[in-house]
Amino acid sequence: MELEMKEETKKLNDVINSNNFRDLVKVLDRLGRLSSKFDKKPLIKLLNHENDKIRALSVKNLAKLEDITLLENFVNLINKDRSSDVRRESVSAIGRMRNPINKEILIKYLDDSDPEVILQAVRGLLVFKDDQKVKNSLTKLSNHPNEMVQEVIKKEFYGNGTNGFDPNHTLSPDFMKNVTVQGDVRDILKFTPDESVHLTFTSPPYYNARDYSIYASYKEYLDFLEEVFQEVYRVTKEGRFFVLNTSPIIIPRAGRQYSSKRYPIPYDTHSILIKMGWEFIDDIVWLKPEASVKNRNAGFLQHRKPLAYKPNACTECVMVYRKKTDKLIDWNIKQYDKNIVEESKINGDFESSNLWKIDPTFDKTHSAVFPLELCNKVIKFYSFKGDLVFDPFAGSGTLGKAAINLDRHFFLTEKEKKYIERIKENVSQSKIFSQNKFLPKFLNVNNFKEVVKK
Ligand SMILES: C[S@@+](CC[C@H](N)C(=O)[O-])C[C@H]1O[C@@H](n2cnc3c(N)ncnc32)[C@H](O)[C@@H]1O
Fold it and tell me: What is the DSSP letter of 204?
């Protein structure tokens, strides 16, 4: 042990003397646990190193000693160092000592201009959160301009405190299971109970790009989506997901003297969703083969002139959002019986990146359907067996078909009668319904209103 320690110090001294930056970073990064007998002098010397990263790593290692005699070194760095990383690590090192003597010092850094420093001071002080002075200083930050600082304080002092089991989380109303309602989604959602849905995956109508979606203006279109997504937020269970598939669309030019116009739907809907409380989780890109999309290269292929370049649009956005909560995803998982969690696991190959290569599907009735593979992936990654998955713009009902095949329930809404017929065909092709006690039901808005009332 003694020998090992000497070895460690020697190794550290050797790299310091060799002045090899990369080796020094590597050694400092991998120093591991330090015993109380560790010779801290070489690390203290490195606190004056010219490189920010070396100074920050040295602080990080010294912090492991939880040694009060180092307090002055850390305070000096917080007050004088120009690197945010070094200052943050130094506050963290003081917090890590968990020594009540340091309370006053940490309180002082709650006023720092660097939110990272404040967050570290908050972390260090939360150990003493029952101390009235600490509590007062921390709660003053509940309106701090930085969102991360605000979130930590709100969670610690104003959270609802029910991090336990919610028996309703895994349940959904029977009257929504495997039900398709024909009508305007906005009318249907008025009767849909709060927090009844586990996952929504949808592809909304495109702005004036297809015959089923005529809006007076782009603003009217975005307002319509906002109204629907606000309701989706309400019906979604705490901490659960909303996956939205859209892509920028192009409206052809009105004549030779005009230009065509491109509308960045995913980017415009993103800010609307964030404003209503959805938390951004991931941006998945669905990549289609170039041969399957409209060719926009023809003109450029001939003239090759800059500015008039038009790439073929082979991708669509699959944006992933989560209903805002102060609970971790682990809380959502823990609500489920462990057998359900086990059975819902995604075994074998999975999409390891956010680039999903999937061929588009062409349907005999509907002009813009989800590929079944895309629905399968979204359902598997973002729901558990037995959950209720929702598509407000169901079209041909691909999501319903996938849900049944994967032992989930679906709830679909679709405006057009002709597509309801296609949904009937589609879901009846799925897994034998005799195993399922919820046979598919097709209702209109009034029928749905009645079943909700019962
Ligand atoms: C892009 S398609 C969805 C296709 C679907 N993902 C599929 O796999 O077949 C959008 C659908 O939204 C429907 N729709 C448009 N406005 C609606 C509204 N206000 N209420 C319900 N459905 C609507 C359209 O009729 C269209 O079928």
Answer: P
- For the Cβ of 378 lying below 6 angstroms from any atom of ligand 1, the answer is no
Q: How many residues does the chain have?
A: 454
CA dihedral in degrees (198, 203, 207, 208; nearest 10)?
-130
CA 300 to chain centre: 38
Q: Cα dist. 176→61, 191, 285 in Å?
A: 56, 11, 31
- The predicted pLDDT at position 65 comes to 93
Using a 6 Å cutoff on CB, does residue 182 contact ligand 1?
A: no
User: 366 CB under 6 A from ligand 1?
Assistant: yes
CB of 39 within 6 A of ligand 1: the answer is no
pLDDT digits (tens, 9 = 90+) for 306-335: 999 999 999 999 999 999 998 999 999 999
The reported pTM is: 0.87
pLDDT lower than 70: segments of the chain: 1-6, 160-162, 209-213, 430-436
Task: Give the list of residues 6+ apart from residue 253 with CB closer than 8 angstroms, or none.
Answer: 259, 260, 261
Q: Please tell me the predicted confidence (pLDDT) of residue 255.
A: 85
How many whole angstroms from 412 Cα to the centroid of ligand 1?
10
- For the domain 174-453, what is the CATH code? 3.40.50.150
- Cβ–ligand 1 contact at 370 (below 6 Å): yes
- How many Cα atoms sit within 13 Å of 354 on the Cβ side? 10
Does the Cβ of 316 fall within 6 Å of ligand 1? no
- Atom index in ligand 1 nearest the CA of residue 363 equals 9
369 lines ligand 1 (CB under 6 A): yes
β-bridge partners, 441: 179
Helix 372-382 / helix 398-405 crossing angle, nearest 10 deg: 50
Q: Which atom of ligand 1 is nearest to the CA of 413?
A: 21
Q: Which two three-digit tokens encode residue 397?
A: 């009902």
CATH number of the domain located at residue range(s) 2-158 in this protein: 1.25.10.10
pLDDT score recorded for residue 159 = 75
Helix H or strand E segment including 225:
helix 218-235
Pocket test for ligand 1, best of 210, 396, 415 (most atoms within 8 A of CB): 415
Q: What is the pLDDT of residues 381-435, one digit of tens each?
A: 999 999 999 999 999 999 999 999 999 999 999 999 999 999 999 988 766 655 5
Tokens of 209: 């790009």
Taking alpha carbons only, the member of 35, 39, 42, 34 closest to residue 18 is: 42
Domain boundaries, the chain: 2-158, 174-453
pLDDT given at position 144 = 94
Sequence-distant (≥ 6) Cβ neighbours of residue 364 within 8 angstroms: none
